[in-house]
Amino acid sequence: xxxxxxxxxxxxxxxxxxxxxxxxxxxxxxxxxxxxxxxxxxxxxxxxxxxxxxxxxxxxxxxxxxxxxxxxxxxxxxxxxxxxxxxxxxxxxxxxxxxxxxxxxxxxxxxxxxxxxxxxxxxxxxxxxxxxxxxxxxxxxxxxxxxxxxxxxxxxxxxxxxxxxxxxxxxxxxxxxxxxxxxxxxxxxxxxxxxxxxxxxxxxxxxxxxxxxxxxxxxxxxxxxxxxxxxxxxxxxxxxxxxxxxxxxxxxxxxxxxxxxxxxxxxxxxxxxxxxxxxxxxxxxxxxxxxxxxxxxxxxxxxxxxxxxxxxxxxxxxxxxxxxxxxxxxxxxxxxxxxxxxxxxxxxxxxxxxxxxxxxxxxxxxxxxxxxxxxxxxxxxxxxxxxxxxxxxxxxxxxxxxxxxxxxxxxxxxxxxxxxxxxxxxxxxxxxxxxxxxxxxxxxxxxxxxxxxxxxxxxxxxxxxxxxxxxxxxxxxxxxxxxxxx
Length: 486
Known about the structure:
Blueprint: E1 9-11, E2 17-19, H1 22-35, H2 45-55, H3 58-74, H4 88-101, H5 105-122, H6 138-150, H7 156-164, H8 168-195, E3 202-206, H9 213-226, E4 230-233, H10 264-275, E5 279-286, E6 291-299, E7 304-309, E8 327-333, H11 351-366, H12 371-388, E9 398-401, H13 407-411, H14 435-450, H15 456-460, H16 472-475
């Protein structure tokens, strides 16, 4: 059925008006879906099943989505005036709105990451060879999948057999050894650059929420301190704006996940001053009061390296005007790749969901946030990642995988069973419009239920999972000091 369109022009980023071509919207949506293996990666029978039944092919689904975008654009009367057409950015916003409104989360994520990656290309922040496309690094994912296959845990069914047969310990040991070897490689890269004459004065450990930055930061600096390097840690949480400058949404939630939640201008100024040998008055932020309450003098001593553990360490405005050769940037993602069930569906589990489960556990145990609050907030987390973290991962000097096959078995006993933290389905009744939260809850619930879990006593003991493992940031018992858990 044709959709009436009364939009004649669109406004390009250079403000030029050009003829509107709906087919370009359809093509972009289709390419985003194809980049993740097709729209069926987003099939949720109870949510969007009728679209799949009615449309059938990916091409027809993309055309339906494009028509829906067109309806949204035509509903704004201003867009019908020739001299006030929709902008490219407005159209892209509507595409994401439509995809997420129909539960096509993975397609929307691929579209968003590609969109913002192209933005950073246009800004000159990343060169073409550092562009990461849809944000799912195929080569790295295939390497992890191959490793898991060799160890019998490339499917949930295979992982369950490993746990049931008591063979998880050697898998855990070998996966941790692989992670430790990657940190050795990172440390060697730092030393090689220093020995080659680079004057590294700043080291970033960056990556999306709950990827294991804190443990990784400690382990990497321990290696480098043995080589004689000295570090000054700067807590970037102290650069948050006051709460009164963070407006709340319709459920009284605030978005702290965007880099704009930080006073970037002050932070950038302070970083430059520290590298110049000046003393700064570093703010001290009180989360209890929701504002900066004091400051203290901080100076980077000669020979020290400024150490920063930050979500947004790759975000260009933070380090604007700072020589890249003076920086070493490490990126971490919890990317354990395996197929759901026995692998027959050819659908991968979402490693981003493992980070959500990690964060739910950390939030409920150490931040007094309920798991349902974390799930409702996660759309902010994901939007921030797809704008200022994942599209920029190509800028990293080294990438570490902070995901492990034993993550889900270790997390499960905290969420299911008596006293488990996982919300009930009826807890979402008051949030009927939060489709993103509903989808993530159902997916996480199904994933945790499908996994053979360890017992809490197995998780607590250190003979299976050592005290310095990344997962200890979340399940507890870490032998490494975790500041955000204190």
